[in-house]
Design a protein that fits this description.
Blueprint lengths: L9 H9 L7 H11 L4 E4 L6 H15 L14 E4 L3 H14 L7 E4 L6 H7 L5 E4 L1 H10 L9 E4 L2 H6 L3 H10 L5 E6 L4 H10 L4 E4 L10 E7 L5 H11 L5 E4 L3 H13 L4 E4 L5 H13 L4 E4 L14 E4 L7 H7 L9 E7 L4 H11 L86
Parallel strand pairs: 1-6, 1-7, 2-4, 2-5, 3-4, 5-6, 8-13, 9-11, 9-12, 10-11, 12-13
């Protein structure tokens, strides 16, 4: 099956082909025809399945194929709105729009916090057909009267579960109230909590449901391994593994922002180039760290779960769980950043005695026991007793929610300089479909050996 056979415009198929993609992923095969019909869509898909192209390609087709319903004079209206939870994901999606729509007479822009609002206001004065935004900054523009959403034809909620986890439900409801009733709605979520189902019921009209893979699965191309180690030897073991095996492009996960900063500083002192990325970092620092990591000049990127949502790198070889996530489903999300598009990847977890229950929960979720390998020189001390894991908001899989305890007020918004309130929900993730990727400008399967 080719992209041309899905009914997309020739100019879109041409742009996709120039990026080196030939065959649609499973979710693209289902989502693109559904969106082209104009129906609402509820799709179970996480980062790594090709979902970004699953909605951007048909949106470009639909907007290019019909004239704008804007006024006869004055500024043309924004016609499609794509909401994302983080700045990095917004930038990634808008990059995809630009790449896929390079031969179309459509314009797009991205809008998020952490940067000056004035250039965005200036850009809005010209034509913007497709707007990719985070909720907080979008509402800032609405309040300042610089943005009109009354003529939106297509709305996309991307990674809706993560938006609700981050406390965006109030902002989303405010935005929905500003949109015209006659529009197409597309909701993409890796999980289907009760809150997601309630949002879908209120938002979607007779939607088509797409769920392309069994839940809680991990890609077969990912080699998973656990290294038992004492809690105070983890940093030394991580440095040893990186240096001994000459690892590059290593994505390391910590639970907290403070932990990410401390680990990056310690690795730097060990002679390993490392930077941290999380919600407290400036947008400039986050962008610089991502850029250096993607190009390979930065050896290690230390990230919290939420900040890592926009990290999509072709053939990322190594993911390390320096600390296991408090929520077992997030293990699937974390390691799914390697082993994409058929490429092999390695996921290593450094597990101390405090985390045995977390590991057991993960193994129960993925229905397999992970192989354990003790590294010589880092044998765990059997006399060490487990200690309670500190639950600090902002760095774990979910802001302010510890295992078995009540949800706390979010410490802040990891995607922008606003704070929103919301109650996190338990999640049931949908695994990667076909082990494909939705990186930046990424779609379908690419020929073997080609790199972006």
């Amino acid at each position: 099956m080719s992209f041309a056979s899905l009914g997309l415009l020739d100019d879109i198929v041409r742009a996709v082909a120039e990026l080196g993609y030939t065959e649609p992923t499973p979710i693209q095969l289902q989502a693109i025809p559904a969106v082209l019909t104009g129906r609402d869509l509820l799709a179970g898909a996480q980062t790594g399945t090709g979902k970004t192209a699953g909605f951007t390609l048909p949106i470009l087709h639909r907007l290019a194929n019909r004239a704008s319903k804007g006024p006869s004079e004055g500024r043309p209206p924004v016609r499609a709105l794509i909401l994302t939870p983080t700045r990095e994901l917004a930038a990634q999606v808008e990059e995809s729009v630009q790449n896929y729509g390079k031969y179309l007479k459509l314009t797009s822009m991205t809008m998020f916090g952490g940067v000056s609002i004035n250039p965005q206001i200036k850009q809005l004065r010209s034509r913007v057909d497709i707007l990719v935004a985070t909720p907080g900054r979008l509402l800032d523009h609405v309040q300042q009267g610089t943005l009109d959403l009354s003529r939106i034809e297509i709305l996309v909620l991307d990674e809706a579960d993560r938006m609700l986890d981050m406390g965006f439900i109030r902002d989303i409801k405010k935005i929905l109230a500003l949109l015209p009733r006659d529009r197409q709605n597309l909701l993409f979520s890796a999980t289907f909590s009760d809150e997601i189902k309630a949002l879908a019921d209120s938002l979607l009209k007779s939607p088509e449901l797409i769920e392309v893979a069994r839940r809680n699965a991990t890609a077969d191309t990912i080699a998973q391994k656990v290294h038992p180690v004492d809690r105070d030897k983890k940093r030394q073991l991580l440095a040893h593994l990186i240096q001994e095996h000459n690892w590059f492009q290593v994505l390391v996960f910590t639970r907290t922002k403070h932990g990410a900063n401390r680990l990056a500083e310690q690795l730097d002192k060990d002679g390993i180039s490392a930077m941290a990325i999380h919600g407290n970092k400036s947008q400039g620092a986050r962008t610089r760290a991502l850029s250096e990591f993607k190009e390979g000049s930065l050896q290690v990127l230390v990230a919290t779960d939420i900040a890592a949502r926009g990290i999509d790198i072709d053939q990322l070889p190594h993911v390390v769980n320096f600390e296991l996530p408090n929520v077992p489903e997030d293990y699937v999300h974390r390691i799914g950043r390697t082993g994409r598009a058929g490429a092999e990847g390695e996921a290593v977890s450094l597990v101390c005695v405090d985390e045995k229950k977390l590991l057991a929960d993960i193994e129960k979720l993925i229905k397999r026991e992970l192989p354990k390998e003790i590294v010589p020189g880092f044998e765990p001390d059997p006399s060490i007793k487990p200690e309670p894991i500190q639950q600090r908001s902002g760095g774990g899989a979910r802001q302010g929610q510890g295992r078995g305890g009540p949800p706390r007020k979010p410490a802040g918004n990891a995607s922008e300089g606003r704070q929103s309130q919301g109650k996190p929900q338990a999640r049931q993730p949908v695994a990667q479909a076909g082990n494909h990727n939705s990186r930046g400008p990424s779609v379908g399967r690419r020929p073997t050996g080609r790199h972006q």
